[in-house]
Amino acid sequence: MTNPRYKTALLIGATGLVGKQVLQNLLNSEDYGEVKILTRRDTGVRHQKLNEIFFNFDNPDASLVKADDIYCCLGTTIKKAGSEESFKKVDFIYPLQIGRLAKLNGSTKYLIISSMGADAKSMIFYNRVKGEIERELTDLHFETLHILRPSLLLGDRGETRTGEKIGEILSKILNPVMIGPLKKYAAIESSKVATGMVKLGQFPNKGTFIHDSAELQQY
To answer: Residue 175 in 3-state DSSP?
Structure first.
């Protein structure tokens, strides 16, 4: 039974590169008595604090979207999604839908993995969608909104992405010279983003905050 002194976290995107690590950090955190995940399939993770909820994102049950803090690690690529429309569903529609329902159910804090270059006015579709979800979540007026904008994520995805593999190789060469204003463009380990996300969730500050790779590197 969940200790009422502790908060409840709700995570979407628990099977992705960052999401898997965020889940483990949430389960290990002493600040949360219950960790809910909304998922389409069994993650295989077992823990006394874990409440795995099978969820239909296309026909959501609003009563299930309830927690103190919401963590969103949903994200895909246009290639994997199959179309721009399917990509936008995962990276925009679902995160916004969860945000709206969570706000209605009393959640006060929302944290989301966005991307470097997010801009609602961008000519680049990917960056524009990321900017649009940031804008819409900001307009929901959570007491606290943390937007994480990492650059290239390093880590084992369990799949081959040729472009990102090339990026990882180049990052090993370029990262050492990414200093000062360039530091936010340096590739970053997914573990640092995951650790930073959960630690940011414990900050008492209220407002909207944007965090780039240069800041997240400290974790």
So the answer is: helix
DSSP 7-41: EEEEEE-TTSHHHHHHHHHHHH-TTEEEEEEEESS
Token digits of residue 18: 């960052």
Q: Could you give the residue numbers annotated as active site?
A: 126, 130
Which DSSP state fits 143?
Answer: S
pTM for this predicted structure: 0.88
Q: String of b and e for 139-156 (b: at least 16 CB within 10 Å)?
A: eeebebbbbbbbbbbbbe
Amino acid at 106: G
What CA–CA distance (Å, rounded) separates 119 from 115? Answer: 9
Three-state DSSP class for residue 5: coil
Query: In this predicted model, what pLDDT tens digit does every residue of 88-144 receive, in sequence order?
Result: 999 999 999 999 999 999 999 999 999 999 999 999 999 999 999 999 999 999 999
In the chain, the largest separation of any two C-alpha atoms, in whole Å, equals 50
Alpha carbon 19 to its chain centroid, in Å, reads: 7
